[in-house]
């Protein structure tokens, strides 16, 4: 038997045989299984869980919500300030310091700038010296007058006893009266010097520029080192102002209304103003006055309008559109209270009128007890429990409970 030959054949490697599975193949198979499990979980999340009860909804309406005043006339204009000032110095001088910036809020009397006070200080020092000299002169005259009065009194006694001549006494009296007149002149000179000092103090104070009223700085017109003057000096080298301030509480609207339509505008008429910068912001306003003068070139009449709402967003020279509204009708105030709710949304639960309103996310319902009122056709007046804008379920089924999950039916009412 060829036993050794058979054994050698068994030891030979068969290269056509199928190789054993590798480790990489095992990982790929495991990843496929995990992906299938995740897909199954997602499918259950989308289709297997409870999607809630399908319902139709309606929106609660305010009673008389359509009764807003109608516009009888539209116009355009600008925001203006009734109180605005370009602040300047009372004297001509060189700016030493400017203490304001655009957008800064200033109070009445607050220092906005200072001018070089050298000349004003020198003038005040001279006035103070003149006042001191006048007062010292008063002291000298008073001393001499006191002596003259004593001499006159002594000579009066002596002349009565004929110890001195009458002429000597008369001379002493004249001297006394002259000094009295001189004292009065010196006192008046002192008063004049005091007034002159007060004027010099005003001159020093005029080098300080203060805010005439509280407001907001909208422009800064001068810089340190420039010359400012209350009057234009020409040449472009002299400023006429330090800055401009606006009293934001005095903002109003001015519009030009065509002559053909001015008859529709009345004082105290309600107005709705809309700034061009904020088209979705409706500002309540009212007519202040109709200016009794027409523009011949434009055939318009100017109308002043007061803004009833103050806001930092409102600034001078903004463009604005206004709608003049007709006055509210008296019967509008007699509208019944509450809101209008479709009768189909009101059901009985435990002997009480209730409705099911959607929550803020619109995915669950809240059971709300209602206090109902009058019937209004297909609707019902609800005095409490709902507000305008709430979404309520129409024809709620018996299985619908407080907190239940809902979905909108395909034909759900918007």
UniProtKB/TrEMBL annotation:
InterPro entries: Beta-barrel_RND_2, MdtA-like_BSH, MdtA-like_C, RND_pump_MFP. The keyword Transport applies. The chain crosses the membrane at residues 26-47. Residues 340-395 form the Multidrug resistance protein MdtA-like C-terminal permuted SH3 domain. Keywords: Coiled coil, Membrane, Transmembrane, Transmembrane helix, Transport. Residues 131-196 form a coiled coil. Residues 253-325 form the CusB-like beta-barrel domain. Residues 83-229 form the Multidrug resistance protein MdtA-like barrel-sandwich hybrid domain. It is found in: Cell envelope. Belongs to the membrane fusion protein (MFP) (TC 8.A.1) family. PANTHER family: HLYD FAMILY SECRETION PROTEIN, MULTIDRUG RESISTANCE PROTEIN MDTA. This is Efflux RND transporter periplasmic adaptor subunit. It comes from Luteimonas notoginsengisoli.
